[in-house]
Fold each of these.
Amino acid sequence: MTLIGSDIAHAATVLKSGGTVGIPTETVYGLAGNGLKKSAITRIFEIKNRPFFDPLILHIGNQDQVRDLVLEIPAPLQDLIDAFWPGPLTVLLPKSDRVPDLVTSGLPRVAIRMPNQPLTLSLLQQLDFPLAAPSANPFGYVSPTRAHHVADQLGDQVDYILDGGPCEIGVESTIVGMEENQVVVYRKGGLPIEEIEKIVGIVRVNSTSSSQPDAPGMLMQHYAPRTPVKIAKDWPGPWEPRVAFLGWQTYHAAIPLANQLLLSPGGSLPEAAYHLFDYLRQMDQWNLDVILTEWLPDEGLGRAINDKLKRATATTA
Ligand code: TXA
Ligand code: MG
């Protein structure tokens, strides 16, 4: 049985000996291992059942660690790092030889972020290597935002789970990089695009589906529970009793109340993000025929939430 606890020293010992640890971050829980050690990286791919073409993010505990891992940092990305680290921002930078090709799936750039979660920051600061950490869910499933989500799905395979409580933000980090001197957003996430644009001006958003995705967060069917997810206004019925509704602010009149959850009755997008993956997981356990949902306002964190819902409703990869 996997141990769950808040023992940072134990987590560090496991990681130093090449093991894997579920780690809390402010976005979602990660499945972490030594990001410079091939056996630990391989184990992460195996546990997640993740294809090797889908690269991993390296997590660091202080900015000095970046220098060894990359060849250069373009000025706009440095400005974003200065503004938002530690925080829900992942930056794609040209990788140095220190980063194993396994981490980047052979791509020329490496994804790096400094998470803003006290236990994990302290853990990272005790290690002399970065932690490779994808979200701690089986490939394609909803990301975990509570320690028990990790235990429920990967519990017998990870060596330890560091419990930092519920993730404050609840959706993954926003991924950015540069193309032809412009900042590009590759995954809409916990740092709203509006915040990024305040620092670097207008950005390009390139998070659409592709058969050769630069970031498989871009894969169309992703973040999906096992129960099919559909948009309520397109649903022809029947309405009960085997239909669930994941709403924004108000309940659906045609569906039994016991089958409904609201992301934020008060209309707060951060609150909705905080609940999103936990509610999708809860509803999946109800074993109904379909989970109906609705779009949120497409602004701030609503853009990331809508992107997750769009992918959850997609039926093919
Ligand atoms: O919030 C987060 O970013 C969480 C926490 C644990 O930090 N991590 C996370 O990792 O969401 P993961 O592996 O589930 O998603 C990382 C995304 C993937 O879509 C991957 O394809 C993309 O980042 N990615 C990683 N390295 C990349 C690279 N070198 N080039 C392009 N995309 C990359
Ligand atoms: Mg993931």
Note: The first strand starts at residue 3 and ends at 5.
Amino acid sequence: MSLARRFHKLLIANRGEIACRIMRTAKHMGLATVAVYSDVDRDSAHIMLADEAVLIGPAPAKDSYLRIDAIIDAARETGAEAVHPGYGFLSENADFAQACADAGLVFVGPSAETIRLMGSKSAAKALMVNSGLPVVPGYYGDQDIVALQAAADGVGYPVLVKASAGGGGRGMRIVGKADELAEAVASAKREAQAAFGNDEVLLEKFIARPRHIEVQVFGDTHGNVVSLFERECTLQRRYQKVVEEAPAIAIAPERRAEMAAAARAAAQAASYTGAGTIEFITDDAGFYFIEMNTRLQVEHPVTEMITGLDLVEWQLRVAFGEALPLRQDEITATGHAIEARIYAEDPDKGFLPSTGLIRQWRKPSGHGIRIDTGFRVGDTVTPYYDALLAKLITRGDDRSQALERMVHALGEFEIAGVATNLAFLELLMSHPQVARGEVDTGFIEREISALTLAGPTAAPLDLAAACVAVLLHEQSEHIPPSLPSPWDRTDGWTVAGRRSRRLSFRYGAERYDPILWYGRDGLSMELGGTNARLQFVARDDAMFDLCLGDAPERVSVAWSGRDLDLSTPRGHLALIWIDPFAADVGEVAAASRIVAPMPGTVTRILAQPGADLPRGAALIVLEAMKMEHTLRAPADGRVTAFKCAVGDVVQEGAELAEFEPAMK
Ligand code: ADP
Ligand code: ADP
Ligand code: MG
């Protein structure tokens, strides 16, 4: 950061919660702020917070938040003198740091050279070995498959194949046996090339049941380096952090001091400036460097909560060319802090990302609670960016108090309109093993059924909404209501002269069979022995008001085949309508269309039209919110036609392919 100097106007090259978070501190420090935004973000919170805002392009990140030229132009136009990249997007892009420097802008972060070095996990490991840090045994050399195979055999299985340029848990494969290596390397290389534009891989011994502990470091342009304690990020799903805390759970004081010293040595070896994080995995035997992140970390608030420091302020001071505000012995920590990442995703549907309008947003408040977010009620969650809705951070005098506050705050947080992982987080944070700190990085995956299956049950109002959705759907499609079933006496006309009709729905693992009664005085719904009057009025194709007994509510509905998506004031609900008469036709029809389960971009087409495929064969890869979803063959059969191409942005429910099940 040779350009370090006092500046007065800062451009924040990011969006969402982190853009808002950075602007708050910048304002406190008397800086003017410039936001950048894409088409879909024009009404976002981060624009409202900024003094000025510049449109930099259309929604897809590659056309806006990843456009180096557009961001540099925005800085020039507004007279910004410095750029804060936040995390994600261009924060670890060495070309961006260089472009800022070339344009005479202060880049709030380390030099392009340091970013480039640490951006390669292989190069970073080589440097750390030279600085005397323990690293995971492994191989980071020649990419020739013969060399890789020999190295893997030498390291011993299981082996982890990692993308050298990787991040966000992508491009990793566990290999259990020698003969699985070649395929895993090929697929990791494909993913790495597509995601990072670089297909280099390295190999590491797969450490069984490790914990992830990382150390926050800071360097300035005067050669000072300090560490700000560690964070535990062991609760992960698919190598991605879900919950983070500071300090680490049950760490011996000697190990703690050793890790901090190792991290400082590493930062010193890299002549590091600004905020950085040295990540380690640990087991009983020791701790091992895995990578360095050259930016502000998502979970930096837990460090702030125990140290009382503002890390963004420190970043800006270092960028001004000032010395670090505190010496190592002046940095102290008290209490314990925990952060939970609240995502727009549905844990009961395999963590499928969720999009839509936020209809309700009620935040918990109270002592020891911090919420970092870029969303408000009325905002829309789009498929273009990361699904992070908010970070909920709680602090306590000790871990059990912080945990208690977390569980309570999660229960009070109300978000409706999109699915969220709130209930999942509450179960996770209430888990007795989490309370005892008996966790490793595989904990969530092992406990997944306990954390998701105890899932929600549908309320009578939800089923009333589902029934109304079916009635309106039939009306709009001019489908005559199903005829009475000859084999099911509860359907159809009864001798008493009142007409009844049973509708069946599947919700998660449960089946519900409400009965609609058409009487002289109107419609009623019977469920679980109670009967209540049901009234409704359609507002438009996708919305209606209903009243069950005397409980009114407004509901939005989206159909995709027989999948029914309801948004009620209580949340988002995905049901399947089981139509007994459409069953045969329906199943073939369902099997003959491959539809997008969510909005996203088609990134790969993996099957040949006409080729015979086994059930489960991968057909199409869809990417949304940085997650990849593979759509598979629903049965043995073949794709007769693809209705999409690589690069297409598709809506939820869009038909992507026609599929012909094989004749049995
Ligand atoms: P950390 O190592 O800081 O914990 P992670 O690797 O878990 O961070 O997540 C950082 C990731 O956050 C980025 O790689 C990117 O996928 C995602 N991301 C980028 N920008 C944003 C944003 N504005 N809001 C939420 N997530 C983002
Ligand atoms: P990313 O750049 O995607 O963050 P990391 O190298 O930091 O990749 O690893 C992410 C996570 O993957 C770690 O936090 C840990 O849970 C797991 N992991 C990484 N390396 C190993 C390993 N050698 N053995 C077991 N787990 C590992
Ligand atoms: Mg990492």
Note: Residues 482-497, 582-590 have pLDDT under 50 and may be disordered.
Amino acid sequence: MYQTILTSIENGICIITINRPDKLNALNATVFTELDKAIDEVYHNPEIKTAIITGAGQKAFVAGADITEFGGLDKEQAMALAKRGQDVFFKIENSKKPIVAAVNGFALGGGCELAMACHFRLCSENAKFGQPEVNLGLIPGYGGTQRLTQLVGKGKSMELQMTAHLADAQEALQMGLVNHVTTSESLLDRTKEILGIIQTKAPVAIGKIIECVNVAVVSDSAYTNGKSGFDKEVEAFGDCFITEDMKEGTTAFLEKRKADFKGR
Ligand code: COA
């Protein structure tokens, strides 16, 4: 069905693999079109509860935007390219179903930006993160200037972008860019294990956590609908209160049994 990505569904987890290993999974226009479709599937397929984005092969998660597509673009075309990338990554970030990056090697430029658009990240010991666009006379264009700053703070973000330094897995862990470092062999299993835990929780509440946390880190008022994160939290708390899952969760606690959430 797809040319540049692979998808599979296993125990409610959709695994999306960027699959151009000979080009270190660089993001070209086809990858963006297909990733966009795959995320739509995550949004709309009730069989999918959570998702993982990873890269094919042992070497790279994604080594950036496909540089071969940069040649000859004028300013308007370059802006459209950045906007297209940002829109797909916003779709990932705003998914009500958790989408986690399993970073299995180089996550450079657009690859680092893709990982940062996911709700959180795990990586293998051989992972390398960086925004090396300055080496090409460029800056990050798929949200990297914003999300890197949100994740690691202003000073670190400035230094990483200005020096094009590639951070290894331990450095990424220390900076808060990833939550866990694993061996290459156990990366997917550990990611699935965490998503398995999340899948036992109330889906509506999980979606509301994503919405509220996103408002906390995004200052663009168009994106936040003019609401503060605190206002958003009050509203989302109220929304959760009238779900069947809230009744089930509180009843199960009082009856000393495990809750059986339905996502309603
Ligand atoms: N866009 C297009 N092609 C890319 C790419 C990218 N971002 N990153 C890697 N590739 C291609 C290479 O051109 C090469 O293709 P070829 O075999 O047809 O020549 C193939 O992937 C393997 O990469 P190679 O550079 O030979 O591997 P390496 O192990 O020597 O180096 C990297 C690995 C990641 C350090 C190096 O590929 C690199 O610096 N990539 C670009 C990173 C970057 O600047 N990303 C930001 C883009 S905005």
Note: The mean pLDDT is 95.
Amino acid sequence: MAEDLLLAVRDLRTSYFTYEGEVHAVNGVDLEIRRGEVLGLVGESGAGKSTVAWSIMNLVPHPGRVVTGRITYRDQELLRLDEETLREIRGKELALIVPNARNQLNPLVTVGAQLANAYRAHRPRASAREAREQAVAMMAAVGIPDPRRRASAYPHELSGGMAQRIVIGMALLHSPTLLIADEATFGLDVTIQAQVLETFRRLIAERHAAALLITRDLGIVAHYCDRAAVMYGGEIVEQADTARLFVDPLHPYTHLLLSAVRYYDLDRSELDVATTAAHSFDLLRPPPGCFFYDRCPKRMDICRTDHPQLRPVRPNHQVRCHLYADWSADA
Ligand code: SF4
């Protein structure tokens, strides 16, 4: 594994085994994240973004499981590690922040004590005083006003946004090497959102760490991500440097996402209306051809029967679409 390559995901396939059958949520995803980099994973609801995050953490909820694939983190195969080793890595080096995380907090313990306990969980020699100070400092870092006083509050005494920031603070306490943030700032005030995302960026620069930002908000991708991968139907359909993706997108689905943003000026609800026609295919029975076929304004006959592969079409730019079958990254 190249020295600066922190995470490599290869041919990841994750399914949910329901009474109706196998729901193919993630269909052969390949991703790489390097140190110092923020990768944005973007797409509409149900595209499989969160399942990718859970798969990396080996926390896919029942009735799901990783069917096949490799997830390599710093030369370690995460899917082959025993639970104890994995738990140690999860707490210290990999951090996952999920949306609406309030229910991760213990309602009977003050938020300051919860942060302090989380700090000592991986630093058993830390004094109670040091843990308390770290808790207050982290609350300040994620934008909690008057953090020393609020450390004594119970979760129900905080707004949803503040509770979310406490959970974000918990994930950042051990300065993770790889932060996976799944709609982590959704619902936060724009100013606070910017503050939290800047905290992510600072952490990444200071620790030479990396982040996977999972979002439907292309504004976040544009401002905070070095590269972006677009997901549709459990697949990556386009991946490129962020600037390239926004200026010169290739895949028709990326065009759809970006045109929705341009028309509606980053209004989230409008974006959802414009892009959430839901999958036009059944994840229980993926079609043989392109998954985007029914919604694609540029479809051709071949698209109905031949499934396109993700392939390089320019340096640092991959796309899954028959329109670019003749393009080559070497040209
Ligand atoms: Fe559209 Fe065909 Fe490209 Fe799929 S492969 S996105 S249907 S042009």
Note: The two ends are 27 Å apart (CA to CA).
